[in-house]
Amino acid sequence: MMNSQNSRRNFLLALAAAGSSLAAGQAFSQDASKLKEPVLRVAANTALIPQAADGQHPLDPALKFASDCLQRIQTEINDYEALMVKRERIKGVLNEYEYMYVKIRNHKEEGGKVTIPLSVYLNFQKPANIAGREVIWVEGANRGKLCVHEGGLLGRLTLWLDPNGALAMQGNLYPITEIGIENLTAKLIERGTREKKADPKGEATVVTTTKGAKLGNGADKRSCTILQIEHPVDLGGFEFKLAQVFIDDEYGIPVRYIAYGWPEKGSKQDVILEEFNYTKVKLNVGLTDADFNPANPIYKFRGVGSPATKVDEGEVARQREEAKKKG
Question: Is the pTM of this model over 0.85?
Answer without folding.
Answer: no
